[in-house]
Amino acid sequence: SKPMRLAAERASQNHGIHAAAGGGIMKLIMGKLVNLSGTGVLDAWIDEGRVLPPMQIHDELDFEVREQGWEEVALAIHHTTVTIAPWMSVPITADVEVGENWAQLEKVKL
Fold first, then answer.
1. 3-state class percentages of the chain: helix first, strand second, coil last, to nearest 5
2. pTM higher than 0.85, yes or no?
């Protein structure tokens, strides 16, 4: 039907825009946090074993961080994320959740 075809066309066009914008920003964030040259925000902590390299799931970055000192790591990740694209007219926001596993995650305010 015509309404279904039009809805599918809109969805396909919007998906490309959202994916390109979100994917580009996510690449910038990942590149700033972890860099093969050792200049990333998290590189020293990864080398020390305090942080495992992040895992990306859709529009989320998941980090495994040792319990001691997690606040310092969370602040660095949060700051990097929200300041990565100052030229954008829409602010980038980031939530931080902490827990022993995904079922126990609780949002924390930094």
1. 50, 15, 40
2. no
